[in-house]
Amino acid sequence: MSPTNPFxxxxxxxxxxxxxxxxxxxxxxxxTCDHAPVTCVxxxxxxxSCRIQPLRDAWQKADQTYPSHDNPLVLALDDAGCDPxxxxxxxxxxxxxxxPTSSDSLIRAYxxxxxxxxxxxxxxxxxxxxxxxxxxxxALQGSSYEGSCHFVPVSIASNIDVAEEGKVLxxxxxxxxxxxxxxxxxxVSHVWEHGWQGDSEKGLCIRTLDLLLLxxxxxxxxxxxxxxxxxxxxPISRSLAINSMNFVYTSSKVTVVFDRLxxxxxxxxxxxxxxxxxxxxxxxxxxxxxxALLSKDLVFLFGDSHLHGHELKWSMIHNAPLPxxxxxxxxxxxxxxxxxxxxxxxxxxxxxxLSKERLTTKKEDMSRAVFPLFELEWPGRATTLxxxxxxxxxxxxxxxxxxxxLHGPIMPQPWSWAPLVLAGASGFLQPQGDERPLxxxxxRGRWAAWRILKVLGKADLGRDGxxxxxxxxxxxxxxxxxxxxxxxxxxxxxxxxxxPENTCPWRGQELFLLRAHNTGTPxxxxxxYYDLVVKDSSPHSSGMxxxxxxxxxxxxxxxxxxGQGLDVGDLYLDGxxx
Length: 578
Fold this sequence. Notes:
This protein is of the alpha+beta class. The protein has 20 helices and 19 strands. Strand 14 (about 475-485) and strand 15 (about 490-500) form a beta hairpin. This is Heterokaryon incompatibility domain-containing protein.
């Protein structure tokens, strides 16, 4: 029998609000926002305009001049031990608008970290590579080395035969192993260079294990998954473990970020802590990007507290200390949301947003680490970087054409229209609705073009910056080049990625710079991203012009037409003649 009052179980406050709203014209929502991957955030229940859109608009309209090496905060961080190149990049691109006095806790953290790396070990004190000064263990525990240091053995092989479907093998107190279900364990995300290196055969330092279990207890957990203990050296077990990374990080209750800079930091505003996150070594590795994107609850461990990623995100959106500078946090908010809001943004866009400046030790891992993000399995140990990237492009199908405007090392033909790596590539990612037709013999689309009249200079890049590191890792070239371009004056020399076999044919060839038509400038008023191409002497069998990509360029052109160049219409890029 139905109740006489169907609303008697409803919240009185909600009923009151509904009664007021009856018969009233509905509140108009904010116009459709275009600030993905950040979801719209209403200013209040009464005001449904978006908090995020004005931040994005102000950031795009601002004069985003890159801070120079003599920026006061860059100098202060450099003096404290921070890499000045990283400091300049973060301070400019993440847009914090901060000064040394508002970054005091971060500066102190760098000094504390530097001291911990140089910290002397007392004679007679027993330490190992996993708990020595400079490691994550030391950063959080300090110089307390009570008891003896020994390794806990981890027997993966004997547990593989009793594997339980839908569960993850984890380690607990005393080195006990157990197959854990969803939300029954803590996953660890860390940088190997911070001391936690090895495999299950080496085992886990008892001091490190006790530290991990102490942190896990903060979340009511008794079991931990960490790669150095749970990945074996034995090929079959190792392959199974690496291909199950997707399941590990999506099944854990929390994923805790252990980075020695963050664990050296006490106090500080949330804004300062977020800037510290983007300055960590953790933000420069491909594997940690994978772990972050797969995790459902990412937690950052500081020296005095732990903060969930979503807490930092909402703090950045709602609690800016200086409203007039709030817009300068736009890209930090965007990056945090990209890490945390997997249900909002397609994976390709998330990887693109977060992949700046990321490297790894083995070049194959530049693709291998991305495979779990697309739910792909690595074919085998003999798979090359090029073969791995080709499989990703085939998996993306028509979406792969969105990668054509990216700047970075390029694939060999017939894939050279695409980047050799996703992580580390920059440039312009075409919008979701603008996928271009992809054909077996190349990429077809509409392009703007500039004819290169003369290569005025070509010299190897002197400083050991990120681009040269990426080129060295992938076996490609990175040079600074000055072009004389038809109908345009060059503002400054371009940075060009190319393949060694493509560099020599530049001279004597008809060279062009191509750019996806009407893309605008993605980062600053002076920078844009181009494909460096050679025109084929014969057209494609379809009658269209045929071009072969020999490199990707980043530079600045001023041609008096808004930077759009000459519309050359449809053409084939990198296609073979039929």
